[in-house]
Amino acid sequence: MSYNAPILITGFTPFGGETINPSWQVAQRFADREMLGARIHAIELPTVFGDAEAILQRAIRKRRPGLVLMLGEAGNRSRISIERVAINLADARIPDNAGKQPKDQPLLKNGPAAYFSTLPVSQLHESLLAAEIPAECSLSAGSFVCNAVMYRALHVLADLDASARAGFIHLPYLPEQAVKHRFAPSMALSDQVAAIEIVLRTLLDQ
Amino acid sequence: MSYNAPILITGFTPFGGETINPSWQVAQRFADREMLGARIHAIELPTVFGDAEAILQRAIRKRRPGLVLMLGEAGNRSRISIERVAINLADARIPDNAGKQPKDQPLLKNGPAAYFSTLPVSQLHESLLAAEIPAECSLSAGSFVCNAVMYRALHVLADLDASARAGFIHLPYLPEQAVKHRFAPSMALSDQVAAIEIVLRTLLDQ
Amino acid sequence: MSYNAPILITGFTPFGGETINPSWQVAQRFADREMLGARIHAIELPTVFGDAEAILQRAIRKRRPGLVLMLGEAGNRSRISIERVAINLADARIPDNAGKQPKDQPLLKNGPAAYFSTLPVSQLHESLLAAEIPAECSLSAGSFVCNAVMYRALHVLADLDASARAGFIHLPYLPEQAVKHRFAPSMALSDQVAAIEIVLRTLLDQ
Amino acid sequence: MSYNAPILITGFTPFGGETINPSWQVAQRFADREMLGARIHAIELPTVFGDAEAILQRAIRKRRPGLVLMLGEAGNRSRISIERVAINLADARIPDNAGKQPKDQPLLKNGPAAYFSTLPVSQLHESLLAAEIPAECSLSAGSFVCNAVMYRALHVLADLDASARAGFIHLPYLPEQAVKHRFAPSMALSDQVAAIEIVLRTLLDQ
């Protein structure tokens, strides 16, 4: 894979009563870095249906990235969670940051039911385990804004640039978030950053 | 929806060290019954990739059902679990009953990434809760034989009969299975059967 | 064990936003029954620190039971949960039904740290599993009113009647409760009643 | 509290198929350090019923510590887990490292049913949360070797030195352990060490 093309990495604004979002805490660490000749652009997306997808779509059209790595928060998971698939469904258990709470809606009328991640999911999984970072492959990115963003990026790139790759990774709470919940697991920021560094290196080394 | 057409209900053979499978324990209770004029055919599918889909596909082609209700076991879930979507992926954590354990394989080369259930998932969910039966909508039917069968049925019907409906429901362990596991939840057979009766009535009443 | 002496079985009033409590739903089924010559008295205890213990203590002093079987609700457990031990601690995460919420308090100043159940816990566990009812032995009855009642009964009987036996069993939600929660497991009322019937028979058969 | 007296900190050898034990990984970091004038002695206890207690008892008699902080592994927990109570019960689900697997046995014939931790459990909990380290108070240290060691230390000190304090803290898996399990949560070693540092400082500051 050639990465003269830039890399987009995205995180989200806090939501659901949290004051930080691990996805942006991690993504911003990579902002404006260069890896193997590829420039990394970091974007903080609003946790708002429609707005998040629109901002990402514009960035993809503008930057023409070779790789789009999207990050999000999954507060009930204890591991780096590599998503396999995004589905054409918006079904929100809580309101997004603009108060929208779609139920049983398609993200894109007449869009395909799903897009698979175009990242080598199993290979990333093994790279993380080899580095002693707890990780898992996940079969569902949910039906909230995370899934919506993943679906949109894959949809846009399917048209725009078949050689570009895109995928989504869910991150656990940071410890400072978990202390406010009774049982939630968490992962240290340094381990989360190390995980994404490994993911990027694995993708660029191909 | 007219159901002069017959109904297919399917369950699976036991797998993963179990000696029974709740899906077939439940499905066989409906064998050869008639509901609102529709004849119910019950089929026990082998828990084997490829074979299960082939048997179901033949039955669909032969019976021309108006409704295909597929049942399976999800031993870690405590509720009637109505699946929303089947994905084009075979990725098995344990071998199936013929020793096959596909990894990262598509079910159907060049098939669509996913099919949504054509059942009214949210309405079924509400019908079950109204009847005081614990239920949930699920965003993943896994990537084992259950998902393979759901994908195939929806794929075949997409070609064959756009008016037919099909969907998949995962069932908890029966109590007699849960006693052999340390923590697994379970649900009484009578409640599982009542749940599927309600699902069928809800679908036929439309 | 001779059971010419009566049996006390106790349940609790609903708490924590619930409108029923499985412990009383089950206990009342045994009210005024006779088993192997022993009369069963059922008592619904208030979910209130202090009051619950006082009512039970009076009943024990009045009835002089040979067996005290206390039941309570544990909404996060999926199995019949036989408690091994009660500890001298009141530490409430939520207020009781009178608004009391003790923190880090002993139940009985200068009382022993704990009392073990005087029921044959492992034998009851095996009786339930043999009857295909999911069950477990538990090492903690919590630090809410359930534990307080168990502690008091064992304390009173330690003085009053060394031959009497007493123990506590936590019950899962009933399905009609679980439907109001997102993930909670449950067990059918008929299975819960069958479990307690087996427990009583196992104890009386000794 | 005066800590001219030395501090004992204990961890365990690996067990249950693991090759490391977080409790010893953490405890050895404190070996031979001095905190506020108190010398810290670290001991690696064998995960063997009887042997572990005997070694700890000898060390207590020899060192006359003012504080005994015992650490152990709880692979299913995601947080620093401060134990409240040790019970007089050995009941092992798996064999210890010498192949012993006691069932339903008292640790000490005619010993009291339980000992409460003599550490200020709630205060330690709050200190950890204030430092943004996920922590919880636990009502059960289990019935394996961890509980046995906690029970013995508290029993010995009850006789020997009423002013000495002792308690037990369970630690999550380290990430390098969690990668070998499918779902287990974990915590970074640096955060586990920081937690125990805070615990010691909180105790010494009193």
UniProtKB/TrEMBL annotation, chains A, B, C, D:
Active site: 83, 146, 170
GO MF annotation list: pyroglutamyl-peptidase activity
EC code(s) of this entry: 3.4.19.3
Catalyzed reactions: Release of an N-terminal pyroglutamyl group from a polypeptide, the second amino acid generally not being Pro
Keywords: Cytoplasm, Hydrolase, Protease, Thiol protease
Predominant localisation class: cytoplasm
Superkingdom of this protein's organism: Bacteria
Stored Gene3D superfamilies: Peptidase C15, pyroglutamyl peptidase I-like
Listed name of the protein: Pyrrolidone-carboxylate peptidase
Gene Ontology biological process terms from the UniProt entry: proteolysis
Family: Belongs to the peptidase C15 family.
Function: Removes 5-oxoproline from various penultimate amino acid residues except L-proline.
CDD domains: Peptidase_C15 (cd00501)
Keyword Transmembrane helix: no
Oligomeric form and interacting partners: Homotetramer.
Cell compartments where the protein resides: Cytoplasm
Single GO cellular component term: cytosol
